[in-house]
Amino acid sequence: MTGACIKKWWGMRNVLVAFLSTAEARRLVETHKAWLMHFWTGYSPEAHMGLEDMCVADERFAMYYDQRVKGGAAFLREAIRRWAGQS
Q1: 14-24 pLDDT, tens digit each
Q2: Domain containing 64: what range?
Q3: Number of structural domains in the chain
Q4: Which of 20, 38, 40, 83 could form a disulfide with 29 if both were Cys (CB 3.0 to 4.6 A apart)?
Q5: pLDDT tens-digit readout, 49-79
């Protein structure tokens, strides 16, 4: 990785980290949780995080999110890690 690539990546990472702290990211996680509760009988932040870890690891699930927003599966996973259990 060149210095320019590292600098660009680091800048994008900083934007991502900043966005994860916003109310919009929290609402995304709350909306995802509400959708899950149509199918789950109980909620735990650990299960929510584990589910999204599997979604990122399995390319079939990741593709569902990534077709809509590039990097969407990984972003949702990071948002869930930040906000799960906070509401």
Answers
A1: 666 677 778 88
A2: 3-83
A3: 1
A4: 83
A5: 999 999 999 999 999 988 988 888 888 898 9
